[in-house]
Amino acid sequence: MTQIDNGELATAINDDKLTEGFLRDCELRRLSPETIEGYKSTLRIASQVLRSEGLSISKLDKESLRKILEFLVNQGYVYNTLLNYFATLSGFCDYLVWEGWTEANPVVPFRKRYVRQFKSQYDPERKLISVDEMTMLVNSILDPRDKAIVTLLAKTGIRRGELIRIDTDDIDWVDQSILLKPHPKRSNCLVFFDDETARVLRRWIIARQSFEIQNGCKALFINESGERLQRHGVTHAVTKHAERVGLHNPISKKVEDHFTPHCCRHWFTTQLRRNGMRREFIQELRGDARKEAVDIYDHIDKKELRRAYLAAIPLLVID
User: Fold this and answer.
1) Which residues in 122-246 belong to E strands, given as ranges?
2) Residue limits of CATH 1.10.443.10 in the chain
3) What is the mean pLDDT of residues 196-208?
4) Average of pLDDT values for 67-72?
5) CATH fold group of domain 6-118
6) Among 99, 155, 205, 263, which is most exposed with the fewest C-beta within 10 angstroms?
């Protein structure tokens, strides 16, 4: 068994206390549970990297930040992931400054000097599969929950975080639509689904009844414990099946070899565009933020939007 000296133990305890304080601060600032969970995961990995080098996340400086960047680069992380990691570390340092634990945030100048340089090298195109490959992927999934997850992601283009917040009573089975929870990144919360998606969802709703639901959980997608499925659960549900049919290579460092939940959003957008849907309709279905002042007054008729959606979304001929 590896022995930990008193100095290492004290550092670990102090790191954990500051991290817990930061996460509580995030809760007070009303950040979403998904965002806080992402921060927690990032800080845990960064702490492990630094402790292996005899450093502490509570004493971030140029040297420790270089160690974290080297680790991420060696792991083959893409540019956006690098940005997310250092955005979290910057937020953590802002908290330390606010609480008086340190005098300045070293992440901001570090990110400007080093991280931006990776944009061209670490930001390739996401994987885009064909309609036939999407059909093959969905029909290869026997688990009713996972089949519903992949189908809904592909047919609506919603984000992973938006999917896990859907409750069963958010679904309008008559209009075949879902009212998503409000989110700062989304302008339009209404999305549609077609007949074959409805069949897949109904199969999952029936299977869901066999689970022991915890505390009356209303989440559409639950885990094996009967609780709301989390972000990592969605990622696992997508990647494990994509890997099985040869669409996802977990050991490759090339982003184009990975099929993730966000690839379904990329697929959704591309198929609607290829099938001739108007640009503003695609933006509305994606929930993209309105960038022009005039866009606020550009009201899109929901019935017309639904007709356009049904005309453009590909039929997958799901078993």
Assistant:
1) 171-172, 177-179, 190-192
2) 131-312
3) 97
4) 90
5) DNA polymerase; domain 1 (1.10.150)
6) 99
